[in-house]
Amino acid sequence: MCKKVLSFTICFLLFVASQSFGDDIESRLKAFEETLRTQGETIKEQQKIIQELKAKLDVTKKEVATQAELTKSEAQALAEKTPAEDKSWKFTGLFGGSNLANPNISLVLDTFGYYSNIKQRELPKRGIPGLTNEGLTNSKGFNIDSAELGLYAPIDPYFNLYATIPITEDGIELEEAYFLTTSLPYGLQVKGGKFKSGFGRINGQHKHVWDFADLPLVYRAFIEGEGITEKGVQLTYLPELPFYTLLGIEVLQGENATLFGPDARSGPHAFTAFAKSSLDIGDNSTILFGPSVITGSTRTTTVADNTEFQGTSTLFDWEMTCKWKPSKTQSFTLQSEYLYRDQKGDLTNTVTSLSGPLKRAQDGFYIQSMYQLDRWRIGVRYDRLDLFKKDFILSGTQNNFGSNPWRATAAVDFNPSEFSRLRLQYNYDRSAGGNRVNNEVFLEAIFGIGAHGAHAF
Amino acid sequence: MKMKKYLFAVLIVLLAATPALAQVKVVATLPFIGSLAKEIGKDRIDVVTLIKPSQDPHFAEAKPSMILAARKADIIMYNGLDLEIGYLPRIIESSSNPKIQPGKIGNFDCSQFVSVIEKPVAIDRSMGDVHPLGNPHYVFSPANILKVAEGMTGILSELDPANAAYFKGNMQAFRARFIEKEKQWRQMSLRGKKFIAYHKLFEYLAREFGFQIVGYVEPKPGIPPSAGYLAELVESMKRSRPDAILASEVNGERESEALGQKTGTRVVILPHDVGNAGVKDWFSLMDKVVESLK
């Protein structure tokens, strides 16, 4: 009885419920039907797509099958051939890896703190009397030399391309951009564009691989900036001799501010020749030595303030590097360059317009050594100008500029890895004649990211 | 008439300048590569090896003498996988030798025959000096070395077809010796052994001979260990109990000796290439390595 009542009640309740929600259900059903229809359409469309895909797949399958057959027959053909005829070698690019879409890219950040006991406004005026009136450009405190962008890659089987683009606070510079041939016969190689001249030793090095934070005095005295970097062409010849000798000549535009001046003459007017020889002594020692010469027309304002010099300059260089490297954790390098400049022409005072013949024959050298132990290196350097010659003959009279300029340097650097270097350097600088001693301190940090450039000797 | 005589003289000089008996001149970067080439070419090829056995192949410089050797080469054979990236590009480029430029037959990357292991998926230099193309130290991998030797036979035959049969014969002798030697090496029970290594030099060997490298003295490839890292390593070695610490004569000898003393673990200094003490060719290199690991 009880059960009956209960089931009846449930039936009644259901009935009432269906009655009261009848309208709602109808509308829902309609909506449901609508959904079903649209879904049916979607399914139809999808089936269509699937059929299309199936057709495509069949085609691909057929293609793959034919390809497989092809490879089979190719493999058979290859197997039948002797290995000597197999030309399917895998090749590796010059710089390793795969570099089709992008050139090798590197960025080197060179930043340093600078201290000097000389007042900031005196620094730019601190030239080397009788040699150059160009002063020091560093700011006391924080300096950014540059973030130097390097790009390089083979162009095709015949040329490689290199570009060095330092980005400084003043803007973007094109330091180097040149091509280099790879496929000339007889040991010949041509370089063209804008590049660091093969003259001398440090001249060819980028700033971040220098052993010290600054250049030797001889470079400051005779060459402007970070060395002779010029537009032009270079030809080198590497003969098959029993020992390494590289011979090179260059035709350059001749725009180095100190050596030639920017507008001495139209057209290329600087010419370079150099020879570099090298011998190995045992497994661990190598020496590299050779002469260089650069000559050209000159028109500069760097002889002294308020003057203009017009004439010809010839700069000679003798380089010598000895390196002892018994293991990766230890090495010792001794390096020296002797430079001699011969200059003839007329010096004009730009204020009085008076002019007289000037003959300068001056020289200088540096010697430096680095000792490396594990990740540390210590270096010392001695600089000296007017070593054997200090001719400054203006209108037949020798001018004297006081004591011979010299400088002594000590540095220590720590290299956490191949790509980072921290350097502390001290200079005792007596290059400004009778003027005050300049005590300079550099705290430099150099970091490189990106492509791994190969190390030159 | 005079002109003709002059031309003739020039021709004679030019002819005299070309060597009559031109042997293939091979320049090998690493000693084991030079040694393998010599196995195939014997006295019918000239081999110059650039890197000395006492040098670490990761850290060499492009010495002018190497550039000169490359200038004179018919073929340059190198390890590849970017092991020589720090100097080889400069040597090849400065050699002014069109024969050995990339893409030419004289540019011979031995790793083309190698099944490379440890190819990283994504790396940057915060992980140390990781080789982006995979582990380049396949010198200790018998399976791969055999393939490299075969590849060398092919290329030498191509450069000097007159001696192709001779090279093939030498390769057969090499293979016969290889099979016999490999049997000996397989008999040494290295399976299941555990080692600590200084650098990732022995990964190929571990895979082929079934032992394990459970830790490295270098925290990251190319980065020397700090005191803190070494302390951690000493702790972990107490748990892992390795059979020995492996280092090579140019790679981590000092650091490994120190660690060995601290933990009382045996230190094994392995030759890293042909030309190290008592290692005259690749077989004796493998002999010595396998023997030392026993």
| CATH class wording of the largest domain in chain B | Alpha Beta
- The proportion of residues in beta strands of chain A is over 45%
Please list the strands of the largest sheet of chain A in the order they lie side by side.
1-2-3-5-6-7-8-9-10-11-12-13-14-16-17-18
**Which of globular, elongated, flat, extended, rod-shaped describes the shape of chain A?**
elongated
Total E-strand runs of chain A? 18
Uncertain stretches of chain A = 15-22, 70-75, 77-89
Helicity range of chain A:
10-25%
Spatial extent as radius of gyration of chain A: 37 Å
- Largest interface pair: A-B, 56 and 58 residues
Q: How far is the N terminus from the C terminus of chain A?
A: 110 Å
| Secondary structure category of chain A | alpha+beta
Mean pLDDT rating of chain B? 88
Tell me what you see in this structure.
The complex is a heterodimer of chains A (457) and B (294). With 457 residues, chain A is of the alpha+beta class. Chain A has two helices and 18 strands. Chain A is elongated. Chain B is α/β, with parallel strands linked by helices and 294 residues long. Chain B has helices spanning 2-17, 31-41, 64-71, 88-94, 142-159, 164-187, 203-209, 227-240, 253-263, 282-293; strands at 24-28, 45-49, 75-78, 107-109, 194-197, 212-216, 244-248, 267-270. In chain B, strand 1, helix 2 (31-41) and strand 2 form a beta-alpha-beta unit. The radius of gyration of chain B is 22 Å and the shape is globular. The termini of chain B are far apart. The model of chain B has no long low-confidence stretch (mean pLDDT 88). The chains are: A alpha+beta (457), B alpha/beta (294).
